[in-house]
Design a protein that fits this description.
The chain has 213 residues and is an all-alpha fold. The chain has helices at 23-44, 51-58, 62-65, 72-83, 92-98, 103-117, 119-128, 134-159, 166-184, 186-189, 194-212, and strands at 3-5, 14-16.
């Protein structure tokens, strides 16, 4: 029997499943299931993927799959907790706090790295919103609100603007959106040169940040 329980990070609730006592086996099988599911979700979309396809791609047979996960929604929650809610993922605010270089330079470097290393997480998080429960969407929204607040505070500090200035929140929101721009352009500009996109995005960042000074 699967029982919903908060994740260790206090983020999206994951099912508590105690059928298998071997913790190492559970970790291995869940990793197989999650890795296969991520690729299928990104390729076909969450709604189009079946449990049968997940079993075939992961190598875990359907008879034992539910010893490790509760259902497809549980897989999505676990993936988001691992890729989107993880505490060790560096955010824009963290980078601005750690790097004393000019703001626009810091942001360009962050995008250049994040468009490569965090691509799957960005695509999964934004594409999966329509398939989340109201409770999960609420938690996701709260996370995004927190990210915007933290970035606004750091941006105000770095530019000398007032944190309560509505322009700061607007710019912060847009900077976060730009973080998703590179991955999401794949469907129209898969063969586009990322350096060109980065150059133009950087020019936009320069202009916005200059207006705050």
């Amino acid at each position: 029997m699967a029982e919903r329980a908060g994740s260790e990070g206090g983020d999206l609730a994951e099912a508590r499943i105690d059928a298998i006592r071997d913790a190492g086996l559970v970790e291995t099988r869940r990793a197989q299931i999650l890795d296969a599911s991520l690729q299928l979700f990104l390729k076909k979309g969450y709604a189009a993927v079946t449990i049968r396809e997940i079993c075939a791609a992961s190598g875990v047979n359907q008879a034992s799959l539910y010893d490790y996960i509760a259902n497809k929604q549980d897989i999505l929650r676990r993936l988001l907790n691992r890729l989107w809610f993880a505490r060790d993922i560096e955010g824009l605010a963290d980078r601005l706090a750690a790097d004393p270089a000019p703001v626009s330079e810091v942001l360009r470097a962050y995008y250049a790295e994040n468009w490569k290393t965090n691509r799957d997480a960005i695509l999964l998080a934004y594409r999966s919103v329509p398939h989340l429960t109201p409770e999960d969407r609420k938690l996701l929204r709260e996370r995004e609100e927190r990210v915007i607040r933290e970035l606004s505070a750091r941006l105000a500090e770095r530019t000398g603007a007032l944190e309560e200035d509505p322009r700061v929140r607007t710019v912060s929101n847009f900077l976060i959106y730009l973080n998703a721009f590179g991955p999401f352009r794949d469907w129209l500009m898969r063969d586009g040169e990322e350096d060109v996109m980065l150059e133009m995005v950087g020019a936009a960042v320069d202009a916005m940040v200059a207006r705050l000074g």
